[in-house]
Amino acid sequence: MLTDIVVPSLLGFALLLSGMKVMEIALQRWAGQRLSLWVARSTATPLRGFAVGTAASALLQSSTAVTVLTIGFVNAGWLTLSRSFGIILGTNVGTCLTTELMSLKLHRFGFSIFAAALVGWMITALLYEVRIASAPSKHALTLRYVCLAFGGFGLLLLGFKILQSMGPSLQASGTFDALMRHAADNPVWGVLGGAALTALVHSSAAVIALSMGLAATGALSPEAGIAIVLGANVGTCFTGLVASIGGGRGGRFVALSQLALNSAGALLFYPLIGALHAAAAAISPGDPSAQIAHAQTLFNVLCSLIALPLAYLPRWRKPASISPSA
């Protein structure tokens, strides 16, 4: 039991988290300063903020990084509450890119992607050693960060593949089977579990990828996986709440708004888990893993579109530092 379930689950999840962190760091180092200027200059309206939040989260593969960045901008008075509201809604959509890519079964090429990225990184390292007397060129640095990002993506795919490999062992486990039946009968446990685990590891994509890996082998039902998606959307707010502590009222307002919106979305769609599954199944029939990814995308897009008009309320157009709501 230890070697068949515990070791693969820990190793697979560790590779998932490590891969995502490597991707996040590499892309932040490459685009961090330019991204800050882009966000500050390109959010003239809540709708533009929504587009920027979506693109930035997809680029950095981390809605948490964009959320923390937004809280900092609001505390500095660079963004109004309405613009920050649009960005937060966009991050929920942009974060779906990772799981949608995983639904394409790219894990079959995980090792090849990692190996190619490693070779590319070694080439940039050798080029830098040759030019040790001078700083590496802009293009060499870009290539290095791109290779690191692809290496992280390869690690992520390898972790996903390992998680899938433990499916038969989980299915043979009577205890796990009983837990899954309980979660299927009471989806609220899936929501609570997804929220708690996401808050613990600071990555909703990693938790959803875990559920996708289990669903791909039949160890987890798609409905239970969708319940985990709803919970993960709430748990991802934890990092923003922590980041807002000690900051201005505007930053705390942004963090609490994200929590309120994501919690309201989970409550709204909890009775509609069956409908989300049906819609996702229509897109990818016979593929439980992809169904969870599509359900996440549908859920986040619908929630964000429903909430976006709230950003146009007149009382939110003032700078956050002087807003009475901040």
TrEMBL record:
It holds the Pfam family Na_Pi_cotrans. The keyword DNA-binding does not apply. It comes from the Bacteria. This is Na/Pi cotransporter family protein. It is a multi-pass membrane protein. The chain crosses the membrane at residues 6-27, 47-71, 109-128, 140-160, 188-212, 224-247, 259-280, 292-313. It is found in: Cell membrane. InterPro entries: Na/Pi_transpt. Keywords: Cell membrane, Membrane, Transmembrane, Transmembrane helix. Its main location: membrane. The keyword Cell wall biogenesis/degradation does not apply.
